[in-house]
Amino acid sequence: MTNRPPDDPQSSQTTALGFDDFIGILVAFSAIGGILFWSLSRQDPGNFNWIMPRVKPSPVSPSPAPTLEPTPDVNLDTRRSLPDTDVTAPIDTPDSGDGVISPPVFPPANIAPPINSTPRQKLLPFPIGFESSIKSSPQPLVSPAKKKSIIPPPIAFNDVPTDFWASRFIDVLSSRGMIKGFPDYSFRPNQPVNRAEFAAILQQTFDKEGTNSTLSFTDVPTTSWATPAINQALSTGFLKGYPNKTFKPEQKIPRVQVLVALVSGLNLKEPVAPDQVLSIYKDAKDIPQYATGKIAAATANGLVINYPDSETLAPNKETTRAEVAAMVYQALVKTRRVEKITSPYLVQSSQ
To answer: Per the domain annotation, does 301 fall within a domain?
Structure first.
């Protein structure tokens, strides 16, 4: 039996790690690190802020809203007016200087309004407060203007041409409703006028107030269409009846009676020398004696119109509708209700 030599006491202290030992230690630490990383990543997946320094956010002042200035031509299609902006582009913020990194700030995304399918319309710009200024501003008081009388157009009679000698007189009277035509749109200017028709024209033309007294005629029934007009013509002094209590409404009225009626109704004064005034007429001798003063007054006041010869009165001739219109118009000129009309058939008296 042999004796074993004793171990060297310094051999365990001087022996170095082998390659296998180093590999084992590296694997052990890798496993420990993997387990630690796995456990931390399960708490907030994708969040690696724990390995980054804590960031202190800096306050960001809100950017002022852009001011839209009104333009005279604004289209509803806003795609052309909005600038192209990168939605995802961050806005750089200055470094605070204390080592704290500010996070990137993203501007609000500009969303284009929907495009309407309706046709484009121009928007009229109004300043702010325009509506309130309208409501609050007091309106000035305006006194109503005096209304002017509107005269309707004359009746276009189919038998009164524009070059007819009495067309201007007829037009004015028809536009004022003082004379009327017939259902067939005719005026019949050369048709004679009877006493009842002349009374109706006087009623429509003159608004003179008369007396309340009425006379009854044996030849004018109370149911006649002309009774109101005849009563008014009598009460206003334009017409008179005959001594036997008759009016003779169907009698064609002569020119002398028309002029006497107008002078009587207007209360015109007779000239001092009527014969001198009547000397202008070639047929002055045909004037009835009872009417000389009235015809002289009619001549001196411009009521007489003689067609076709201004110097021929024809006092006893039946008066046509055109002649009645012309003489009634001259009576309105005398009362200043209408303007004068120049006519070559108007008798001009020097008295």
So the answer is: no
Residue entry with tokens 């005398």: 334
Q: How far apart are CA 331 and CA 346, in angstroms?
A: 12
Question: How many domains are contained in the chain?
Answer: 1
Q: Give a yes or no: residue 239 inside a domain.
A: yes
Q: Are 269 and 304 in contact (CB under 8 A)?
A: no
Q: Which of 28, 112, 37 is nearest to 77 (CA)?
A: 112
Q: Phi and psi of 200, rounded to 5°?
A: -65, -40
**What distance in Å separates the CA atoms of residue 119 and residue 117, rounded to the nearest whole number?**
7
Whose structure tokens read 């993203």? 106
Give tens-digit pLDDT for 66-77: 555 554 444 444
Indicate whether 224 belongs to any domain: yes
| Whether pLDDT at 287 is above 70 | yes
**Helix residue ranges per DSSP H, the chain:** 11-14, 19-41, 130-136, 167-175, 195-205, 227-235, 255-266, 274-278, 292-300, 321-334
Q: Could you read off the pLDDT of 131-141 as tens digits, one per residue?
A: 444 555 555 55
Q: Is 153 among the domain residues?
A: no
The 3-state DSSP class for residue 27 equals helix
Decide: pTM greater than 0.70: no
Tokens of 181: 């035509």
Domain that holds residue 247: 194-251
